[in-house]
Write a sequence for this structure.
């Protein structure tokens, strides 16, 4: 994967799935119908401000709470290219990989970063910010395989001989 | 010249000896009821548009949350909070989640001979015990709240002479649908529907409520029965006495008269999208349904639940149907618990909800979706009333609705064995 | 070397000895899909190119979040679910019988030692009967429906030992809240929890369910109890040798062990808006409230309603306060009717709704508005979960919640 550069939105610790997309909107027909309500309990204006290619940097336990897969789908639909957090909740992590949304764990960046600044992610190596390098781990192979297949749907289509 | 019972109640409220249709009088209101459909608007007007906001007599007011309860979104919750806070600050009787407003009013407040305004069209129900109840908008309600009075144009009265007795398996619900089908949805515009005759006396208070409740569906200002020993007994059971007992004079003047032979009434259904689009239930038999609703201020009383339970006992709700059973009040729910009716409905797979307006009001709980079909004991079948604009509502009796829930399609109780 | 419960379940399932960190593919014994996600599961399943379910008998579809429907598009989910079930020959569809997690164990779909996944984070609940169960998203569910398998990373285990007798007004809810507070909302992320000790042994399956249910609020992948006689009775099975073996070995390796004395527990609440912001109820006393909610897959069971009824008997809900009671299942509702619990609740003025997720999932059932405060027995108090962002949600046990409803403010259950 190539390096990615983007403008940063900063969120706090324990950003739960009800914040990412409240249950009230979950029965809408499409992700596009829902995405305008992304993050609305916390920052109602945020969904409208995010531009394609932006990056979210958050604290610990990002995506905790429900199994709703609309959460990573909405983040992706809003144009976010990756989420960097101190840590991620388990179900959200799997759902993101399965939908091809890149998640990166980085313990220190969140403490230093200012919203609106720009960072560059060097895949499987480090993040550049303000002249400093923040190291990141590489993804396990089985997860990389799913991402490279374009998510789990792609992987299953391959299994079923469709692609 | 003689007066009808409706005219006598208005005359008393106006403090005059007699009134005639067409007169306009200022009247003292005995009580005023408002629910969560509009109270927040009334409160806004009270707070923002009056120079000297003042309530004439808080004891005359009753606020009832019944339409969206428990609340289904922050907006309705905010409206209800406004209503609750206002009631609390002003010492107004406040009910929340205890039942449909008209049922609560009949169980706890309405007395024969009273004149009552309610900010809900089905306030005409109170004629079941010989009171004059009528629906008003929130501006009228606000005026009444501030002054304790209002003005009324004395309506003409249409006499419905009921003879005979309803056959077994036929209900007051079928009768009122038949009456509306006959006179038309605007057949009694601005008039009073007075139900009288020996047939009227055979009807229970619950039956009478079902009749008066739907008077507005014929355009009437109210529906009314002369209070008899059944009405007095009903009030006594609920710890009250009549304010006054009025009877229509033998020489009272009626604008029209109809006679209905109760023994000839058959199960009927009102088809979408008008209450007077009536047909024999047999005609629509077999139409597939998605939901059935047994409840509302029209047909959610213990008598109706007994009818439904007796039919569904030992049967199951069809897989493709959601059967909502909604007692009209907490008191009715408690009685149904005691009689084992809730058990029967739960065993059959029904959805037993807390007392509220439910799908009759088309919001909150039980709304129907795109192209879905509902058969209902509710008050109205207007286009989109119960949910999606493309959905359809049929109105029938508790028996027809329950039988349909079991069959998965519109059916008659006699088809369920 | 000894094994933890989760290691035994995975070994039994895969036929391989495993250790934490191993990535293995498990065979799935049961799956649960609920109404909110069925349209997405159906769409992904067909997009993936599958034409049949790996085993229709093992797939359970449950309508609970949207029952009764409160928005115009809600019933679309039932229509899509019914069509999917008909197309693929699924015999198990529950359309209005209660909350998915309650039904999975109550209706006998989950047995001790099973591996189960569900499209809901609280799928951890089935650990109460010694099953490995966890929540997943709809894409992953679609792939299980086709393959019957899923990859997992074998989790490390945190052992929680609780010994002794609980004080009178303390319920298992107070224990799990305290534990989440001590661990933090991410303290068990990716980990298995294993509960043991005399307190746990003496608990009903229902009480254990409350704890395994909320384990996900500390991030846990699953939360396991050793199956015992009570489990066998609840699940209507005779425990086989495998199921009997599901206890942590003495020489098993735990990431850590946390020990509590039951006598030290007191009634607690999770304060707005974090599940790990735990305070003793006694320090919150006097805070006025607007509503109380007793229900959910966490605390909507018969013993919860019964505890509430004990407090509410002969009492009335405070003026201007609403008490909403939503039983977790049709069976529980009926039992509560038969035992006179519903009568007590109704006499107290409770609003008793049909079984379902109700207020807990924030779509209907008592949504609140700005400036309102609710005491609730469910599992989450996230910002905006029950209305606007300024609604304050306090999580508590049913006993505490009922006492608050009578008082109209936060009080300890004494």
């Amino acid at each position: 994967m190539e390096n990615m550069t983007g403008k940063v939105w900063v969120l706090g610790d324990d950003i739960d799935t009800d914040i990412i997309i409240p249950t009230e909107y979950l029965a809408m027909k499409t992700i596009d119908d829902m995405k305008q309500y992304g993050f609305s309990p916390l920052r109602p204006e945020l969904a409208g401000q995010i531009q394609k290619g932006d990056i979210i940097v958050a604290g610990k336990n990002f995506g905790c709470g429900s199994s709703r897969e609309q959460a990573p789908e909405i983040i992706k639909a809003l144009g976010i290219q990756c989420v960097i957090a101190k840590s991620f909740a388990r179900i959200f992590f799997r759902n993101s990989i399965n939908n091809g949304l890149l998640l990166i764990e980085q313990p220190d960046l969140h403490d230093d970063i200012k919203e609106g600044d720009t960072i560059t992610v060097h895949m499987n190596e480090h993040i550049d910010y303000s002249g400093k390098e923040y190291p990141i781990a590489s993804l396990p192979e089985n997860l990389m395989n799913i991402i490279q297949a374009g998510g789990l749907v792609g992987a299953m289509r391959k299994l079923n001989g469709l692609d | 010249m003689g007066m009808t019972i409706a005219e006598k109640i208005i005359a008393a409220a106006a403090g005059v000896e007699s009134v005639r249709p067409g007169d306009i009088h200022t009247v003292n209101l005995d009580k005023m009821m408002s629910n969560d459909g509009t109270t927040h608007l009334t409160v806004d007007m009270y707070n923002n548009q009056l120079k000297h906001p003042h309530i004439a007599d808080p004891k005359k007011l009753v606020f009832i949350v019944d339409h969206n309860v428990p609340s289904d979104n922050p907006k309705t919750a905010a409206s209800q909070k406004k209503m609750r806070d206002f009631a609390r600050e002003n010492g107004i009787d406040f009910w929340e989640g205890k039942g449909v407003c008209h049922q609560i009013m009949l169980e706890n407040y309405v007395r024969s001979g009273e004149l009552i305004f309610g900010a809900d069209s089905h306030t005409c129900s109170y004629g079941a015990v010989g009171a004059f109840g009528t629906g008003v908008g929130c501006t009228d309600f606000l005026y009444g709240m501030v002054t304790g009075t209002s003005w009324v144009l004395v309506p003409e009265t249409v006499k419905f002479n009921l003879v005979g007795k309803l056959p077994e398996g036929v209900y007051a619900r079928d009768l009122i649908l038949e009456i509306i089908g006959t006179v038309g949805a605007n057949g009694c515009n601005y008039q009073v529907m007075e139900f009288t005759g020996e047939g009227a006396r055979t009807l229970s208070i619950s039956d009478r409520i079902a009749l008066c409740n739907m008077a507005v569906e014929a355009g009437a200002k109210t529906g009314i029965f002369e209070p008899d020993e059944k009405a007095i007994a009903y009030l006594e059971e609920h710890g009250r006495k009549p304010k006054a007992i009025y009877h229509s004079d033998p020489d009272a003047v009626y604008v029209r008269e109809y006679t209905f032979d109760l023994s000839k009434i058959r199960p009927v259904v009102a088809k979408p999208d008008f209450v007077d689009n009536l047909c024999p239930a047999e005609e629509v038999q077999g139409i597939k349904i998605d939901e059935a609703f047994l409840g509302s201020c029209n047909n959610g009383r213990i008598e109706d639940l007994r009818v439904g339970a007796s039919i569904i006992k030992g049967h199951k709700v069809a897989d493709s149907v959601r059967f909502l059973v909604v007692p009209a009040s907490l008191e009715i729910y408690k009685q149904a618990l005691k009689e084992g009716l809730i058990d029967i409905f739960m065993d059959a797979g029904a959805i037993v909800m807390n007392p509220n307006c439910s799908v009759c009001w088309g919001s909150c709980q039980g709304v129907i979706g795109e192209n879905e079909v509902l058969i209902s004991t509710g008050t109205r079948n207007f286009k989109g009333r119960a949910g999606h604009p493309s959905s359809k509502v049929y109105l029938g009796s508790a028996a027809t609705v329950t039988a349909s829930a079991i069959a998965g399609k519109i059916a008659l109780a006699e088809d369920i064995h | 070397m000894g094994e933890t419960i989760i290691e035994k379940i995975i070994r039994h399932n895969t036929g391989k000895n495993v250790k934490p960190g191993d990535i293995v593919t498990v065979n799935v014994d049961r799956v649960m899909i609920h109404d909110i996600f069925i349209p997405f599961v159906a769409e992904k399943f067909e997009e993936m190119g599958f034409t049949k379910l790996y085993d229709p008998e093992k797939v359970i579809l449950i309508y609970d979040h949207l029952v009764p429907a409160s928005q115009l598009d809600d019933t679309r989910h039932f229509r899509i679910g019914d069509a999917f079930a008909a197309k693929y020959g699924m015999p198990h569809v529950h359309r209005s019988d209660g909350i998915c997690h309650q039904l999975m164990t109550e209706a006998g779909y989950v047995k001790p030692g099973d591996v189960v996944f569900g499209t809901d984070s609280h799928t951890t609940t089935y650990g109460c009967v010694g099953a490995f169960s966890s929540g997943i998203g709809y894409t992953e569910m679609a792939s299980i429906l086709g393959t019957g398998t899923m990859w997992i990373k074998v989790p490390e285990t945190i052992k929680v030992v609780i010994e002794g007798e609980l004080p009178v007004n303390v319920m298992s809810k107070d224990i799990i809240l305290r534990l989440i507070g001590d661990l933090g909302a991410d303290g068990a992320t990716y980990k298995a929890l294993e509960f043991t000790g005399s307190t746990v042994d003496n608990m009903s399956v229902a009480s254990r369910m409350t704890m395994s249910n909320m384990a996900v609020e500390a991030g846990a992948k699953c939360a396991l109890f050793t199956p015992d006689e009570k489990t066998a009775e609840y699940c209507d099975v005779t425990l086989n040798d495998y199921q009997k073996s599901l206890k942590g070995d003495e020489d098993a390796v735990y990431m850590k062990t946390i020990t509590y004395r039951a006598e030290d527990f007191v009634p607690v609440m999770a304060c707005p808006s974090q599940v790990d912001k735990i305070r003793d109820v006694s320090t919150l006393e006097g805070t006025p409230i607007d509503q109380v909610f007793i229900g959910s897959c966490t605390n909507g069971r018969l013993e919860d309603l019964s505890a509430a009824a004990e407090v509410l008997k002969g009492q009335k809900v405070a003026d201007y306060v609403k008490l909403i009671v939503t039983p977790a299942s049709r069976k529980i509702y009926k039992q509560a009717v038969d035992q006179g619990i519903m009568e007590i609740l109704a006499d107290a003025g409770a609003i008793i709704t049909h079984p379902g997720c109700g207020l807990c999932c924030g779509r209907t059932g008592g949504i609140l508005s700005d400036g309102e405060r609710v005491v609730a027995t469910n599992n989450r108090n996230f910002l905006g979960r029950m209305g606007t962002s300024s609604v304050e949600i306090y999580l508590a046990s049913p006993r505490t919640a009922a006492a608050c409803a009578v008082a109209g403010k936060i009080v300890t259950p004494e």
